[in-house]
């Protein structure tokens, strides 16, 4: 029986992972919709989907393929992989109670900002951003971390993801972005003024780990008309981040 070489195995794995991404991006889809979206053959995708379904990564509801709950379990395991993340979660919750606004803790992974914890003092409201990836150039958390990276890492991220426009306020010029990152380093906080989502403003501060690297960021977000002044939020964030960095150093 013919055996797959390393290149074929990588291609097979990549196709399966792209299918999972496609189902997430399409919010569930039929085989024909996935085929059209991925521009691949129906028979090939059907084979991959059967395997993914057998392994619990996708499930079929009627004619539509949906992400399987196994991914939820894996995501939760990843979210708690570092005990120090729990310190950040606690600080985010405390700040949410202080500000009465939504507070998120995000980290950088593969050049994107991903929200691990999204805290609110409203028990009936789930944090809608948990697990979401954001571009780093148009989110407060992303810009706060991006400003602290060295030039090589910043260029690497921007070269990979570009500067896609998501709202009229999104920065899409590299020179303009670098000017803003310089301001962020000088003032100590980043602002997202409806750059990723209309009607959402946020202020973020980067968190430094004990090794001097960027550990993540905390941000406060809400409607522009309701949030306090940027500098007032920044001061609250600085106090919490200082406490968190001290706890990280002793963890």
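-> sequence recovered:
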């Amino acid at each position: 029986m013919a055996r797959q070489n390393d290149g074929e195995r990588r291609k097979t794995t990549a196709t399966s992972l792209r299918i999972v991404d496609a189902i997430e991006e399409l919010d569930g889809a039929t085989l024909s919709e996935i085929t059209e979206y991925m521009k691949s053959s129906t028979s090939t995708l059907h084979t991959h989907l059967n395997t993914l379904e057998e392994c619990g990564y996708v499930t079929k509801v009627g004619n539509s393929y949906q992400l399987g709950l196994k991914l939820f379990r894996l995501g939760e395991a990843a979210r708690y992989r570092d005990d120090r993340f729990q310190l950040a979660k606690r600080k985010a919750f405390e700040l949410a109670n202080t500000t009465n606004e939504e507070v998120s803790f995000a980290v950088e992974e593969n050049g994107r900002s991903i929200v691990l914890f999204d805290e609110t003092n409203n028990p009936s409201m789930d944090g809608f951003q948990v697990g979401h990836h954001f571009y780093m150039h148009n989110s407060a958390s992303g810009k706060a971390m991006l400003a602290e990276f060295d030039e090589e890492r910043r260029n690497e991220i921007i070269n990979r993801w570009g500067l896609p426009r998501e709202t009229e306020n999104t920065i899409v010029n590299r020179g303009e972005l670098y000017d803003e990152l310089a301001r962020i380093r000088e003032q100590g906080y980043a602002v997202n003024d409806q750059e990723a989502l209309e009607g959402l403003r946020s202020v973020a501060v980067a968190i430094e780990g004990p090794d001097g690297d960027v550990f993540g960021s905390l941000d406060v977000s809400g409607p522009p008309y309701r949030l306090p002044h940027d500098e007032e939020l920044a001061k609250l964030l600085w106090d919490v981040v200082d406490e968190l960095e001290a706890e990280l150093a002793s963890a």
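The two ends are 53 Å apart (CA to CA).
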